[in-house]
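Project standup — Tuesday

K.O.: blocked on the structure for the chain from last sprint. Re-posting the sequence here as requested.
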Amino acid sequence: MKSGLSTMEQAQVDALIQGAEYPGSEFIHAGYTFAEVRSMAAHIYTTLEAAEDKAVCLAAESRAVMAAALLASLAGGPGLLLPYGLSERVLCRMQAETGFATILTDAERDFVGNGSAQIIRPQPMGDQKLPASFRAKPELELLRIFTGGSTGSPRVWSKTGVNIFGEALFLARHFKITENDCIVATVPPYHIYGLLFSVVLPLVTGARVVSATPSYPADIAATVQEHGATILAAVPAHYRALREQPLSGSSLRLAVSSAGMLARRDSLAFFHNNGVGVVEVYGSTETGGIATRNRAG
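H.V.: unblocked you, prediction finished:
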């Protein structure tokens, strides 16, 4: 894993916090702008500034709320606890293990826990901004990611800002992602793969991301077409389902798969139907991405 950001990467991340990057651009396609995400980050930072929380639970599906929470934490706010699901059972279990006292969320959720948790639903606050003097602190713990234990007991993985933003900046360079791109993701943003490709990558590149998380083949195809998406981030099960669902008139230039092995048949069928090969990204929550493969060449 990276031990630190380069001088250029540090400057890029500082600019995100200070508002110098993409001030008038959309973060969510046809939705929240980068300025509104930063305003939300300021709301989170100031709300939590007086609290004694060392870490808060981030239980959200909104990519804008996720992005704002990351920026607030990166600026020196509390670290974030990322659950593997948003059910009451999962959140109660995580509270029992961590003792968190605050939840950042985007919706009413069925959560009682020990009855003491403060629930905050961040909103853009007009012209409120993080102070321009703030610098990112990527060496600090940014996230603790709770996994569901699909290969054994549930695990917790700690990630610094260097781990998360360093990987996103590498992916941005590797895939040549820019503000001209539009991303559709079929995986939720509280999954590490979804977080990287549909929250952090748009933050560091200025690309727009679609708010919806489609899962059925027709919905995926319609979402890509409606938004003129150029990048699809999906999982093997969705590429399998898309074998019989060409993305008619697709504007895609890049399709990415992770979170499991993609069958050769499904990969080649997607290429045959849509003219875009699927880049498989291999890695794990603990290591990050470590290798890629495109069977279509």
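K.O.: great, moving the ticket to review. The chain has a mean pLDDT of 90. The chain has two domains: 7-24+34-160, 163-294.
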